[in-house]
Amino acid sequence: MPGIRGPSDYSQEPSRDPSLKINAKEPFNAEPPRSALVSSYVTPVHLFYKRNHGPIPIIDHIDNYSVSVTGLIDNPTKLFIKDIMSLPKYNVTATLQCAGNRRTAMSKVRNVRGVGWDVSAIGNAVWGGAKLADVLELLGIPKLTSSTGLGGRHVEFVSVDRCKEENGGPYKASIPLNQATNPEADVLLAYEMNGEILNRDHGYPLRLVVPGVIGARSVKWLDSINLLAEECQGFFMQKDYKMFPPSVNWDNIDWSSRRPQMDFPVQSAICSLEDVQMVKPGKVSIKGYAVSGGGRGIERVDISMDGGKSWVEASRTQKPGKDYISEHNSSDKWAWVLFEATIDVSQSTTEVIAKAVDSAANVQPENVESVWNLRGVLNTSWHRVLLRLGHSNL
Ligand SMILES: Nc1nc2c(c(=O)[nH]1)N[C@H]1C(S)=C(S)[C@@H](COP(=O)(O)O)O[C@H]1N2
Ligand SMILES: [Mo]
After folding, report:
1. Per the structure, how many domains does the chain have?
2. Are 183 and 290 contained in the same domain?
3. Which parts of 150-232 fold into alpha helices (H)?
4. Do 193 and 85 share a structural domain?
5. Inside any domain, residue 248
6. What is the tens place of the pLDDT at every residue in 47-74?
7. Which residues line ligand 1 (CB under 6 A)?
8. What is the CATH number of the domain that holds 329?
9. Cα of 342 to ligand 1 centre, how many Å?
10. Phi, psi (5° rounding) for residue 137?
11. Same structural domain, 186 and 325
């Protein structure tokens, strides 16, 4: 098959924006600077974080490219790009977030394993493609199905890439069939990002986008779709991206005791300031993002300057643009909110805290200690930045 490259052949990587902060070179893992992240509601493709576990596949000969559909389905078949493009096209604005976002801050409490990320392993894009529910219907599986006649209850997505964690095999993940066949879940087989053909880094020619769910389930470079009785047994579903309490360590870990992480929790971060930032006395603008998983929108974002004793509400800066609206446009419940507040700084040091509340009244946890876990996933603790008055300006 064209495009397959060994798990350590990095000779043909695409070129990337030089402003990205590289957290790992091979595989390529990079995030934009904080301030660039919140300068637009829709994250430009070149600034969108890139999270990989192997070399980027090369898939050309697009007319020959197909996704095989196998497993517990009556008519195993092959899907070509033209089959997917013949279905109604949807543009879904959805925020993709890596479960490892903000891991670096978690590892400062106690060391964790995984690529270090600041607060920008997240981005908001307009994904264009066919709804998975329509694709499965085309293959004979009706909408809102939880089990196929042959007992398929999970849909597995297997990639073209090759990863060390899978012993040189492809990246893969699965979602439950009832989510896959629910048109309201907005799961897409996407071939566009922000109105352009998907680029190589983000899954060209076809990727899965599972809105509201950790990025790890949005498999890039699709090779096959399999109907399974059980969830995918791949590394990233079974030996990674699970939720463990702070008491579990590498000696007592029991992977089988936990479920794979799916929906991400409520999250926010201040992006106009670094963790420790020199400022002039007077007005300081606070800008950032807030998002929640599972289609739960953001209710509000609170800002504190006294360790959480009192709070003021931030305002929403950017409303969804009209840029990519098509005839099948969906709502923005999967997308982040950008917020802004102006504070007055007079003390020599001030800690500024942001915390978001989602539509189900879920709130970010106060301390990173209470959510610490050995893999360093889902650090959603209150985001804190320390402002110091710059002496040269006094
Ligand atoms: N085939 C494949 N799909 C993948 C990955 C990967 O390494 N290989 N990484 C996953 C993870 S962990 C995340 S967070 C998102 C990142 O998507 P992006 O690089 O488009 O931002 O892709 C997911 N899909
Ligand atoms: Mo991720």
Report:
1. 2
2. no
3. 177-180
4. yes
5. no
6. 999 999 999 999 999 999 999 999 999 9
7. 48-53, 96, 98, 159, 161, 171, 202, 215-216, 218-221
8. 2.60.40.650
9. 35
10. -65, -40
11. no
Q: Which domain holds residue 368?
A: 267-389
Which pLDDT value is given to residue 35? Answer: 96
Determine which residue's CA is closest to atom 10 belonging to ligand 1. Answer: 216
Q: Which atom of ligand 1 is nearest to the CA of 221?
A: 1
CATH number of the domain to which 185 belongs: 3.90.420.10
pTM of the predicted protein model: 0.95
Contact (CB, 8 A) for 271 and 34: yes
What is the share, in percent, of the chain residues with pLDDT greater than 90? Answer: 92
CA-51 nearest atom, ligand 1: 19
Kindly state whether residues 197 and 117 are assigned to the same domain: yes
| Residue at token pair 């899954």 | 203
Query: Given the CA of residue 241, which atom of ligand 1 is nearest to it?
Result: 12
Residue 329 above 70 pLDDT?
Answer: no
pLDDT band at 390 (very low <50, low <70, confident <90, very high): confident
Give the ligand with the smallest distance to the CA of 57. Answer: 1
Shortest CA distance to 71 belongs to which of 238, 262, 225? 225
Q: Whose CA is nearest to atom 11 of ligand 1?
A: 216
| 46 and 191 share one domain | yes
Ligand 2 centroid to Cα of residue 323, in Å, is 27
HEC string of 77-124 equals EEEEHHHHHCCCCEEEEEEEECCCCCHHHHHHHCCCCCCCCCCCCEEE
Q: Is residue 198 part of a domain?
A: yes
